[in-house]
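Below is our example:

___
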Amino acid sequence: MAEHVWDRSRIHHTWDIDLMAALEVASGDVVHYDIPMAGDGQVALDGSFADCRFDFDTMYNLAGPMTVAGAEPGDTLKVEILSLETGAWGWCSMLPEIGLLPMDFPSGYLRTFRLDVDPIPFAPGISIPKAPFFGTMGTHPGEPARNVPFPPHRGGGNMDNRHLQQGATLWLPVHVPGAMFSVGDPHACQGDGEVCVAALECSMRASMRFTLEKRTIPCPQWRSPGALTPRSDSHGYHGTMGIADDLMEGARLAVRAMIDWLEGEHGLSRPDAYVLCSLAGDLKIVEIVDAGMWNVGFTMPLNLFAANI
């Protein structure tokens, strides 16, 4: 087994089959990363949304592509997440026309956070535990040969699976020779759903082990080392339910109700309540089997609130 230190300058912004490999590793090797945040150089600590210079062509900084010797289409790449450490600060933003509720929040909005404490202060009496992970980890999907980094794909990609934390294992299908693995979009925390379109975006230092498995899986798979949400389960949850004939509409109803609760019960502004929903709240499909009507839940962990601890 060898260990490699990733060259921080070897960053790309699209899934592109023609990109030259920045590193080749052997099965069992460990790679140490230092990856800039999404929007690096486009957002400033303590800045406002008006100060941001978002460029979606270069916003996502992906370390890669990395090839694995001997990897062929039909194989599986095992990724063990050995360590994750956030940078000094991060940001979350609402962007016009994007997210679950763009019709409710038509204007841009930005919050920045210092990450040198844990939990992270959000508002008086409200703080969020750190739970770092990478929003994007994937092998090149093969088709299309070139694509933007935002949507997930059959090789993984921008999955935003917040449970891929330190100690977790991810298995990815291999679709192209060498696998062409890339990683980026580091997050300090996020709720299931990432409803306002952003998590707590930050830079990240990380170490991961890569192992080639000569077997085929139909889709990305993962394993958690323990309880999915050990830092948020201790004091229960407040939940809302959106019952509708469309899962997206159910999700909107549930999140709107949670925003109402955070505004009325905890005094948050509606933009801050929406951001908190993205950083700490969880969308859940509570029930999907009744013909024509489904129930989408949204839960907020009560241990965020000082009065409940």
User: Anything to note?
Assistant: Helices lie at 247-266, 270-280. The mean pLDDT is 96.
